[in-house]
Amino acid sequence: MTVALPKLALFGVGLIGGSVALALKQAGAVGEVVGVGRSTANLEDAIKLGIIDRIAADAADAVRDADVVLLAVPVGQMAGIMQTIAPHLAAHAIVTDAGSTKQDVAALMQQHLGAHLAYCVPAHPIAGAELSGASAARADLYQSRNLVLTPLAATHPDAIARVTAMWQACGANISRMSAAEHDAIFAAVSHLPHLLAFALVDMIAQRDNADQLFGFAASGFRDFTRIAGSSPEMWRDIALANQPALLAELDAYQAQLDKLREALANLDSAALNQVFSNAQQARQNWAARITD
Amino acid sequence: MTVALPKLALFGVGLIGGSVALALKQAGAVGEVVGVGRSTANLEDAIKLGIIDRIAADAADAVRDADVVLLAVPVGQMAGIMQTIAPHLAAHAIVTDAGSTKQDVAALMQQHLGAHLAYCVPAHPIAGAELSGASAARADLYQSRNLVLTPLAATHPDAIARVTAMWQACGANISRMSAAEHDAIFAAVSHLPHLLAFALVDMIAQRDNADQLFGFAASGFRDFTRIAGSSPEMWRDIALANQPALLAELDAYQAQLDKLREALANLDSAALNQVFSNAQQARQNWAARITD
């Protein structure tokens, strides 16, 4: 029996990359998975958990004859990896990623993989990333989740089809758009909310009576601020990588708060009610569409 | 056997009031519970569910010989109820409430129950209120939850002790503070987050590509915006009732966003990292202290 993907080179064997490997193995859609990572203990865990088949001797060994090279590492590590693997890639080897921002990844590919752009496919799986490490990986992480592909102008249609098939084997729902459109959408629905949650918790933590304030915070606060428990380094990097779109969303949000402040200052019951009612209706409509 | 509270008059037999009645009955801490409400169907449900023993003929009947009168209705309905019951209260009958803002309730008591202030005890149980109606009531809703008492200057110590005992029988942890301090605390940890969540969802819902944006919103957005699914009328009333404290918090938050905007505009990685890291640490410390 031949599999769609005889060899996957996985850079970064944590929740995101490890879950791809598990899903592909469960689907019978991958042959050998070779892992590369900075923590040997984590890679050894990944072997025990059946996520990878072996640990690569080095990056060149990992990508030799690989059909797909998946960069499931923070964007800050990608340039170095791209430089290292570029001379060793097979002619039709796909290079794809799982980063939360896409214009920056596309720029890195253009800078470091210029001879290989036809097989570069930036991608973003939309799945929670609160846990980390190989032990957090789950075969069903991407089941019914969104996966956004942002192909380069130079990307070959065959490369897009192969990455699409790989993620479909993981159970994901595939969308395609430009990297700029991707980054604008996620600035609004992901990056801005993270910044807002970090901002609120930091503000309260700075208060002289922070302990008292946290002591009376309840379930609404808990859910609103859950994403403020996310990795500060990761979200700093996302904010910086997507700075123009995030600034635009932050400005729009501050204008919205200015409007609400004016309504509140004027005790304008109708204006407050309009914003709150519209939000509640939209939130309920959205919640009815999602499954979890 | 005598119970601590032979007769409870319950105005508003929904999640909040109904859960008090169920908890007191389970604890054997109440005799008769007489319900008053605008929906006869809901009151009949409450009898079937063992929440109330009977439906009051009218407000005067409800409070006649009642030991405690609990106003578990929106603050907007309280003035009318207070006016109606004032002539019928027994001399030592407690009047207490379960509203989310306390300076406004205190002012209403002073306005309408001036002859009875020694037995007026404003209170705020901190428990989720996403569901409504008698059928949502649960005997364990207040177990290990915070309950804040904000006695008036005129409130008699015996009245405070009796309300404390009632809520302790429900399993709540009792705190006492001034109404002003209460309203400042909850402006920060509850009212502001609600306003921020409503603001974000309304902003996104107004966009031409709202469907696309909501289509890519994931679990972080879901949790951040959960409280935007709350009752717009209730939160409009809370915002208006607590306007000065909420304006102060909104101004502080906008100043915090101004600071973050500047850091982002300057690509100031260290400044972003400081806010995000401080928030993450504080959020994790807080999450370790709470049980759910």
The greatest interface between two protein chains, and residues involved on each side, is: A-B, 90 and 90 residues
Please identify the structural class of chain A as seen in this structure. alpha/beta
* SSE order of chain A, one letter for each helix or strand: EHEHEHEHEHEEEHEHHHHHH
Give the count of helical stretches of chain A: 12
Rg result of chain A: 21 Å
Strand content of chain A: 5-15%
Shape of chain A: elongated
Strands in their spatial order, largest beta sheet of chain A:
3-2-1-4-5-6
Largest sheet of chain A: 6 strands, parallel
**Overall residue-averaged pLDDT value of chain A:** 95
Descriptive notes:
Two copies of one chain form a homodimer. With 292 residues, chain A is of the alpha/beta class. Chain A is built from twelve helices and nine strands. Chain A has helices spanning 15-26, 40-48, 59-63, 75-85, 103-112, 157-169, 179-205, 210-216, 219-224, 232-241, 243-265, 269-289; strands at 5-11, 30-36, 54-55, 68-71, 94-97, 120-121, 123-125, 146-149, 173-176. In chain A, the strands form two sheets. Chain A has a six-stranded parallel β-sheet with strand order 3-2-1-4-5-6, sandwiched between helices. In chain A, strand 2, helix 2 (40-48) and strand 3 form a beta-alpha-beta unit. In chain A, helix 4 (75-85) runs parallel beside helix 5 (103-112). The longest helix of chain A has 27 residues, at 179-205. At the A-B interface, helix 7, helix 8, helix 9, helix 10 and helix 11 of A face helix 7, helix 8, helix 9, helix 10 and helix 11 of B.
